[in-house]
Specification:
The chain is α+β, with helices and mostly antiparallel strands and 290 residues long. The chain is built from four helices and ten strands; from the N terminus they run H-H-H-H-E-E-E-E-E-E-E-E-E-E. Helix content is 52%, strand content 25%. A four-stranded antiparallel beta sheet has the order 2-1-3-8, with no helix packed on it. Strands 7-4-9-10 form a four-stranded antiparallel beta sheet, with no helix packed on it. Strands 5-6 form a two-stranded antiparallel sheet. A hairpin with a 5-residue loop joins strand 1 and strand 2. The longest helix has 61 residues.
Amino acid sequence: MNKNVLIPLVVVIVLLIGGVGYLAYSLMQQQEANEEMQELAALDKKEMENEYEQFALQYSEMKTKINNDSIIAQLTQEQMRTQELLEELKRVKSTDAREIARLKKELATVRAVLRSYVLQIDSLNRLNEHLTEENTRMRAQNEEAHRQIEGLSSEKASLSEKVAIAAQLDVTGISMNLQKKNGKVVKKVKDAKTIVVNFTIAKNVTASNGMRTVYVRIQTPNGDVLKGGTFDYENRSLAYSMKKTLEYTGEAVGVTTYWEVNEFLAAGNYTVSIFADGNMIGSRRFAFEK
């Protein structure tokens, strides 16, 4: 074969082999990224199912602790609504982002309604406790008084468990923007020097006050996480991008976190997930141009 023909032919074959190898490697990387995103989505869906089940159970338990027919009817209605939403969630695929987002909003509403009933029943129980104590002081038998106090303590402990479930934090107003070195907001990832994530931890009068560490996890379009460190979540180590420690007083508080860009960022959808107290308390997806 002519040497002038053979050399170009060899070059073409080498390039074809290299191209096939690169394509296979890229497909493998994309598959691994998709599997990680599906795993996180399934984990999020399972956590939502557990919360719906817990809330439905709490409604059932609260009905056994009160003798007000009107409130019992309201609790029954809310319990049925919670169970219906749970059945909807079980039928939805974890990859259906739109339906998962809708049911997550519904979950926040269910949690808020449950909190209101917890506070209302707590108020009624406190009134009953006061009346019982007044009645106890009128009794001559110390043994009967002791039984009354034990019964009240048991009810108070049960109510404390309900309050703990309702005390989980919520996040609203999640935003993510890209900034140049001078702080100017840009739309293209290639111009970004800093990623800024803002959100608000909602008011929650049932949550305990004190210091909280909030973790922000940014997942890139190919499934990687912009690394900042790791934290413990669901018996495993999960990567986060930013974290912030703040004092929570039960009132709404705004939070701003920053991630300095030191690597190539691809255009596409970025997912921001926020964690606190061992729970995922918010998530939102953002699209950025190249």
